[in-house]
């Protein structure tokens, strides 16, 4: 699909055709969404559809999970006119952090970190990731936000 082309009829999910199929074997994601992210209207419509279930919800901050959740999370934060918080894999933040162990999709034990100076008790945080396979990273992110009172 031409990245400049926008279909006349933009049915919900039309942009999914922009994702490239896996050509590198079983150790890679099923689909590569990076081409979708390069298409201006595709990215806008994707983010709008992702945010649809949260219309009317009080959201104070958007957090994206390292690393691909940063793309959709930052885009969602911009649309909502909210701040964006990066939840990182351990060792990437040079400020005071709170860490949470988790098991990734491959079964490896890892640590995720969140800075401690942004999430305050009662803050409503929308967590975003590119996709959720086993739920391990999302569970860890939820636990980090909740441990800080969000």
How are the strands of the largest sheet arranged? 5-6-4-3-7
Number of helices: 4
- Give the overall form: globular
Contiguous uncertain segments of 5+ residues = none
Structural class call reads alpha/beta
Query: What share of the residues does DSSP label as strand, in percent?
Result: 15-25%
Tell me the number of strands: 7
CATH fold name:
Rossmann fold
Overall CATH class = Alpha Beta
First-to-last CA distance? 41 Å
Nearest-integer average pLDDT? 93
Number of domains: 1
> SSE order in H/E notation?
EEHHEHEEEEH
The CATH architecture would be 3-Layer(aba) Sandwich
**What share of residues is helical?**
25-40%
User: Biggest β-sheet, characterized?
Assistant: 5 strands, mixed
Protein model, in words:
The chain is an alpha/beta fold and 150 residues long. It has one domain (14-148): Rossmann fold, CATH 3.40.50.2020. The chain contains 4 helices and 7 strands, in the order ββααβαββββα. The chain has helices at residues 34-38, 40-51, 69-80, 136-147; strands spanning 20-21, 31-32, 61-65, 83-89, 97-103, 109-115, 125-128. The protein has a 5-stranded mixed β-sheet with strand order 5-6-4-3-7, sandwiched between helices. The protein has a two-stranded antiparallel ribbon with strand order 1-2. β3, α3 and β4 form a beta-alpha-beta unit. The longest helix is centred in the N-terminal third of the chain and has 12 residues, at 40-51. The model has no long low-confidence stretch (mean pLDDT 93). One of its GO terms (molecular function) is adenine phosphoribosyltransferase activity. Its main location: cytoplasm. Homodimer.
